[in-house]
Task: structure prediction
Amino acid sequence: MKIDIITVVPGLLESPFSHSILKRANDKGLLEVNVINLREYTSYARAQVDDYPFGGGAGMVMMVEPLVNAIESLQQKNTYDEIIFLTPDGETFNQQMANSLSLKNNLLMICGHYKGIDQRVREHFVTREISIGDYVLSGGELAAAVLTDAIGRLIPGVLNDETSALSDSFQDNLLAPPVYTRPEIYRGWKVPDVLMSGNHKLIDEWRHEQSLVRTKDRRPDLLDK
Result:
């Protein structure tokens, strides 16, 4: 899979893709992430990529020309399954969306900044608009990193244990159950007996029950799905 990310602050994305699971995915040749500096695609002086909004108002808007230059240049080399704009007013990202996007081959993400991007880019190029929550960040870079991490870990071969992702929270609209590891007893706090029983049928039933209890307590809205 290949993910290209357009940004005006490429340095913000250096660390997330240089460590841990995403780095291993890249080293294995399973996921290629390219960070594209939007300022390399502007014809304006001082690498300008933003300007004041027509009609007045506070803030700046990312201009249409640099973004179109970048997108069309990338499209000459790639056919994108989705061109995603990270924006607070997009559809809320969830695990099912991550599952779907992990099956794609090529994704292009656009990181907004300032007051957003010129609407004409959204109308003529963007195929999907995604938000990671009901709050506003300084830019779309952190959101792009979140999407890339959530998608990348689902690619077969990325995780050492491929079944691990299947038991994550939200995969079946349930929160994950409690987990324990060594030592079995610590300060008198004991691991539930069922987990030490070796009876995998009982363990699975216990985990499912705990998932239901935790979901009902913390996210009852998920049970409606």
Summary: The domain at 169-223 is CATH 1.10.1270.20 (Trp Operon Repressor; Chain A). The mean pLDDT is 94. Residues 131 and 197 are 43 Å apart (CA to CA). The chain has seven helices and nine strands.
